[in-house]
Amino acid sequence: MRLPILIALIGQLWSLPALAGAWLEQKGGGFTSTALRARASGQELSGYVAYGVSRRLTFGLDLHHSTDMRTKSAHALVFARLPLRQSDQGWQLAFELASGVGREGAQWSGMRRLSLSAGRGLSWQGRDGWVNFDLTREWRRGGDLTAWKLDSALGIARETGPSVILRTELYQPDDGEMIWKALPGLRWQLSHQREVLTGLEWRSFGAERLGLTVELWHRF
Fold this sequence. Notes:
This protein has 220 residues and is mainly β.
């Protein structure tokens, strides 16, 4: 998720979110995320690991499990991220291929994803930040269940105190209604390599539409 040529730019933003797929990981380095989303109707647990195999290849693992009464599901995917445009300025572009298994209800089946990501660093009024978009096409059950996803993240750095992060998630199945989630949060630095994120989740569906989020991010 970061390039050697971008180290100076993101010196104050050393930890990018797991969704920031436009940047590749540095060779020999990586990023992990452990996340919990809790609601009265259930919870979601997820784990994420990305590792820089080379300057032009990031390899990783994406795990997710939901016990929410409305969206009981799980998946385990391995992915490879490759660059389309990596530069010291302007937009960064990458695409990602993921494959594994997913579960809807009690049924497990094959699952695949293809993602296109775009992101860039930002600077205004003396503040640094970044923005990232991930557009994903998803196939489950051999192509019987298909959907589009669009995830976005905006990070704003502060000289003191927690940094602000705003995320949205859109999910549009081919044969159903679009659903959305908004996730405003704060990032607290624990050490040079670790941060914790706390925030809220507001979603468009389910009996319980508000929840809490906690995530631990680690760079190595």
